[in-house]
Each structure stands twice: as structure tokens, then as C-alpha cells.
Design brief:
Radius of gyration: 20 Å
Strand content: 25-35%
Largest sheet: 3 strands, antiparallel
Strand order of the largest sheet: 1-2-3
Order of helices and strands: EEEEEH
Oligomer: single chain
Distance between the termini: 46 Å
Number of helices: 1
């Protein structure tokens, strides 16, 4: 499996400014070759000492397609219903 690479840098139009005073939306955030867009509302980076860094991305995508997860959710619902029937 290929490692994920996170890149955070001032957007090109803000590179000439004083980088110490940029707002969050004035940075370009990339994971690999994919640039996070306007649907991303929050990016948290936890770099606790002696632990692997953890990135949490909060977003509001217009469309979500998760076929395998849907199948897993249906399986869990079916299993829960079967367990309830056994109890009754």
C-alpha cells in the first residue's frame, strides 16, 4: 500500500504576503496529488509526541458513493434483526 502524503502550503496568490498572518482558507492542502476543495470545512492535524501523526478531515461532499460499506451496513441490520428474533 502506498503511503499518504500531506502537503500544506500558502496558495500561489498569497505566497508573497507575510505567511505568519495568513488565514486557513489561504492555504493549499493536498493529499498526494488531490487538492482538498471548498467542501472541506475543517482539517485537524494531531502531532502528539512519540505517536504517529493523525489527520482528521471534515467535509460536506455533494455526493457519497460507498458500495462496500452499504453492504456491510445491510449485513449488520440483518444480523441485528436475526438476534432480536432469537430473543423473542
Amino acid at each position: 500500500m502506498k503511503n499518504l502524503e500531506l502537503s500544506v502550503a500558502p496558495k500561489s496568490e498569497f505566497k508573497e504576503r507575510d505567511n505568519l498572518h495568513l488565514k486557513s482558507n489561504q492555504y493549499s492542502v493536498k493529499i498526494g496529488n488531490w487538492e482538498l476543495g471548498k467542501d472541506v470545512t475543517k482539517l485537524e492535524i494531531d502531532m502528539t509526541a512519540s505517536e504517529i501523526p493523525v489527520v482528521t478531515i471534515t467535509c460536506s461532499p455533494a455526493k457519497i458513493e460507498i458500495e462496500e460499506l452499504q453492504a456491510l451496513l445491510e449485513l449488520n441490520v440483518e444480523q441485528k434483526e436475526a438476534n432480536q428474533q432469537q430473543l423473542n
